[in-house]
């Protein structure tokens, strides 16, 4: 079981989470719990490390000490949940990242889990103890504290479940994965099941239910993950009502296949266009090498003929946070790259349809283009994978496009 | 070097502490720093553990999880000080209690340090690294987090100094140990040196400069401890001005012996009187056995003849927090103990004079009694040790008595 920052936000919410844990324990399950820090707490700790000053040029980075400070947030909630459960008469104990241990590499502030020797933890859980593990934190083989980067608690939860060979229930402030964001389309439906691949596309395309890396790990380790609401409470008899939720699992386990499972939307995009770029065959490669070396991820790419002879216009998209840096890189290399003008447009949105059924069905793209055209939505770029189609459009049309596609693929609730 | 909670209270104060550390490092010293949590933070964490609920009867105590929660406060300041020092160009690193390790027994929430293997920490410090150690926390031989009880950071600092065979500078919000509390007697003087024994008496008698256990440890391990103000800053050239302070050291190192070094006052006293207690020879033993078994410490004891035949009045003092429990214990045993009435008086204060010179000088007590009598202060009980005399008086006279004694023993600043 994993509880996020909202579910750990204060003592009353911690007690509610404890009641859900108790109900699960009462049903005979053996349980490990992964917890986030209290909502807002991690931001406060990060602000303090910022206030202690960004390292001046030439000085060593302090990411290892950032980890020491920031990891404390989950330590607090792990201890508090253990106390709360004991006061309900349950056998519970917290296990810090270094006690389990949750072994990570030494990429401080963005570490990756490399191993969780599950024997000690598993023996404790088997013996009937509810093990509480702070999410987000780990320890290097040399014994230094690490953190996994923001949102890392989901990854911790899946990794602990993998180490214990058990399924992973993620309790959060939504009750499952929806066909699209219900705040945009009120007819959105909760999906009972969704495949790892679909969830991965949805997570990376802007559905904020789960952190991408946690879904990758669940797929790699074949951990069944359920997304559930932490606002559902056991009734007076201590029984949990039907919890609904969404199971994220292997494609084979989904009997009723849909062509499209969901429509996602992301505003975290920026479009950069290089006008009048030389039509040398290696010019685009030069552009994308410079971006890759600076760790700027590029998503969509479109090249079109320019009006000037021997030049092209090259358009690409990046995450919005990377846009300024990408533009600086291009401007710094303007002489070598040989383009005439650069334009940045942040007033764009990416709308995508995702579904494993696309693999075996033709006509998915046509449906998309027709639905958008019917509403007068023009698209500026397209990218596809085996199970998704994304279009870049004017941000003003984003919600309209989402609703049009949701309806066109028959996802609207009746 | 040790910095308390006030000196770690916010980022600006942490920067000031860092400047003091940097000045010491610039003078060529090799340094380990022990830090407290931000002032107020430990109280917040303790309140959360209280809010998570005191264990109901029959349920296991959660002191181990209390330690997990509360130890996080020092973890945060250790990391923040390390970041701040690095940003000043210094080589610094935090060492958690479990990383050093600071090995304690498993008396959670009030653990005692049993060993600090200083090799790893010492090697790092010798190699020029400023080692930052969170105070107050440790780890059991089994690898569970412990805390030392309130004020434990002083003890951590002395223990780390002992492990590294170096002196211990305690930076705090006062600039040394005074002949008495300057808020009571403005003519109080800072002592340049004070012996371990004197400091121990003063600490346990109400001078709140250092935690008693830290002084005991310093005496046992012969660690020279200096109490210094953390409000003194290096000048523009990075040099520290004369820091003053008080050195707590072996009696032999104090050349100029004083008969009395200080006058202390404590209101944390309660007086309990059993009227008409049986004069059976074992009745007082029965009283004090009951109190000892309930861990109630008794300080002063006076027995006097009662008006009723075959009975005595027995008066004793306890810490104020223990008074209600002591009274309950007495009342519960009233039939067996056989007394007529119990009275509790919390309107009392204990005033004491402390000095190693008493060992070799007669007339110390007379001076005390005469000075009090001259001001019309009656005393209700007396207790003495080799180097101190304490009297219990009406609380209303406490400050008057302190000033009278400070003057009578020639401690007033000229």
From TrEMBL, chains A, B:
EC numbers: 2.7.2.4
Enzyme class at the top of the EC tree: transferase
Top-level lineage group: Bacteria
Boundaries of every ACT domain copy: 272-347, 353-414
Metabolic or biological pathway, per its Swiss-Prot or TrEMBL entry: Amino-acid biosynthesis; L-threonine biosynthesis; L-threonine from L-aspartate: step 1/5; Amino-acid biosynthesis; L-lysine biosynthesis via DAP pathway; (S)-tetrahydrodipicolinate from L-aspartate: step 1/4; Amino-acid biosynthesis; L-methionine biosynthesis via de novo pathway; L-homoserine from L-aspartate: step 1/3
Keywords: Amino-acid biosynthesis, ATP-binding, Kinase, Lysine biosynthesis, Nucleotide-binding, Transferase
Keyword Amino-acid biosynthesis: yes
InterPro entries xrefs: AceGlu_kinase-like_sf, ACT-like_dom_sf, ACT_Aspartokinase, ACT_dom, AKii-LysC-BS, Asp/Glu/Uridylate_kinase, Asp_kin_monofn, Asp_kinase
Statement: the UniProt record of this protein carries the keyword ATP-binding: yes
Coiled coil: none
Reaction(s) the record says it catalyses: L-aspartate + ATP = 4-phospho-L-aspartate + ADP
NCBIfam families: asp_kinases, PRK06635.1-2, PRK06635.1-4
Record-stated family: Belongs to the aspartokinase family.
Protein name: Aspartokinase
Organism: Brevundimonas intermedia
